[in-house]
Amino acid sequence: MTADGDIDKDLVARNIQAFRDAMPELAALLEAHRPQSRLVRNAAGDWDVEFRGEFLYGPEGRKRVEQQVEAGAIAPEKRIVVSPLSSANVDLVTERFLYQTLKRATDAGISFLRYPETPEAFHLVSFGLGLGYHLPGLMEQVKPASIIIVEPNLDFLYHSLAVMDWRPYMEMRERSPYRCFICFADNPGLIAKQVRSLMRSSCPMTVDWSRVHQAYPSPVLDAALGEFRRDANLIGIGLGFFHDEMEMTRASYMNLKDADYRILKRSSDALRTPVFVVGSGPSLDDDIEVIKANQDRAVIISCGTASRVLLANGIKPDFQMLLENGAAPYRALAAVHEEFGFGDATLIASNTVDPRVKKLFQDTVYYFRTALSSYALFSPGQQFSLEDSGPTVTNTGVAAALAMGFREMYLFGVDLGTRSLKRHHSKHSLYRHDDDAKDGQKGAMDFTTKFDQRDIGNFGGLIHTETIMLWTRDALARAIGQFRPAVEAFNCSDGLLIENTRPMNASSIRLKSTPDGKIKDLAKVRGSFPPGTEAHFKERWERENWPEYVKSLLDKLQGAVEDHAGNINDIIVEFADLMITEFRGPATVAQFFVRGTVMMVAMCLDYYARRVQSADKTAEFWTIAEEEFIDLMRVMTLQVEWFFENIEAFESDEELFKDLTEWRYE
Q: Based on the number of CB atoms within 10 Å of its own CB, is 623 exposed (0-12), middle (13-18) or buried (19 or more)?
């Protein structure tokens, strides 16, 4: 075997320069790296990596890798297979496209395969690089628009500089930095989360049939790939709905136009008073006396329906959080207000909540909820938003506490699931349980979410949970992690284990704060919120002809389908170029307004276009799909015009949605 002597130094230099141009931080890491292993040639003349007498590939390793790639071309076990969207999890517009397309296809005798029979896909994910022998075959097979490479061993990435030409991969980043990404990490959970995040940032429309390949045996990669497969369904959730964007734009317009509010502004000042962030999970009932005993020395943040639990037990929240838009959250808070009153509690709410909510409070503070058309429309700047404020109001409470400067945090009732399926919320909440129908209780609500998964508990064991709760957990961990080690977060909830928090039994809490300290810190925080102004609202609203602005994007999306009908990958690439441009700058009002629904339509189209059973029916399917998409753009265009003309005509989301539900499409 031979080593260093016959390394192609020109290839190494070209590769290093390609990395300097495209990924300078990784280039610097590679240039500074001193490998522990050696690059050697085997008897067949192929490169291998040797470490203490062990080889990465072994005899005929390259040939074996290439054969594995060929054998797995359309094997379902080498793919991410996502269930098709149905009427249960799409909006009215997508549901109509899906129904019309499939009905017409069925009437035309078109049937669909369980799995696609072609190897092409948008995403290629390589768990492990090794020396990259698998990549040329995969690139030829899959023809991906996006490739993610994970490598826990920097030695392999370093040695690959002398083996493969990296320039074509780095050139993929010219279209978008998310189209080729190399992730250097050795923690399985972190790897899985990063891959999910990168796929979502690149293109969440086409997770189904993504090609995954593990380059070599590794416990780290085994675990990472397993966790990624388990949670791949999270990549495409929470993209937004067209009609929801209408409602949140309407609510923002009504909330902001009279300037009778203040704005939350992020603070860099750390506060010494602890903060209790309170959800309404079932374990809250066990800790309510601890919260009550410490309420004069800790700031109390009530998240959503936790307000009734606290007030029913004589605990007055200092802040009431609200994230969700619509009439249902308003009715719940109105019932609590009628029963107990909120006193001098400050409402901290998304600018998108029902405009009637602020009448329930003496002091209203809005933050600008990101990733929405209303944010792009009205936000005065990033410092007036919250990081990871969703998907649930508990996320809002934690994000707001961190933004206000609290650095000692305790979580109560943040269960994100339950130990017992008989109890999903606190017994004092507005939610009905099998043993308590809440007869006569104003604002009482049913809880219809199904806890169909289980995950590790904060105090051990397993907790019944579901997808949105897992998403909530990850967002909480991410939000708190950004402030560590400055923040100490203690989780007193008997629910899911949350990364970046420490489990603590509430009986162990010993606060060092004082009532006077709490009063001073509360006054400081409440004095930091600047007032809203009519001038700001007017400037933001009148700077563009918004209906025409949104319709222009719809025209371009229709053009993409007309130009590329018959080639789903090309359509998805153009859709991504039109709707996912955050790497160049903030997303636009038009993108936020329509892309959630258009992305769901694209998911439906992607799923079925790849599965048409008979090749002689493919053209007919595409004719149907193209016609239905064009009609979809027609309807969305009409609804955009109608919405902006009638933005002040509705008191609630229910009135708006009633008109949209009864819309005459013909």
A: middle
